């Protein structure tokens, strides 16, 4: 007896998965971009179809972890690494302050306007990051972070790691909300 996709909690047939383009990345930068796109899309998929209350629902007290918090956090992460560190821009935090260093999670409240703002900001930061990645980048070049030289390659791989780690959190959060697992 085979198990159907519905019985496994899978959202869609694998052939309809927007992360699967059928294209093989060529080269290191293209491979990193492919993984970034995959995990960015995974986070979006984990949030699809949920209302503001569900997106803001906390995991396990006293944690403030929520899907909405993850969206806000990843907007901050994209902004920090791509604008501040890789491009040297002055880009103040969007969701946290010195007085509230966990504002990206603490203030992820069940409000449609907060949800819309979070997605808009994440998409803006991804657009900035993608524009940077469209440029001629030397992956071995170094930028300064906290007074130390860091290769561009390391930062890009770290971005993949950030998304992969938080996609795992999103899996568990989504399962707690409506039982969905997988993909």
From TrEMBL:
UniProt xrefs under InterPro entries: DinB/YfiT-like, MST-like
Biased composition (Basic and acidic residues): 19-29
Region ranges (Disordered): 1-29
Stated name of the protein: Uncharacterized protein DUF664
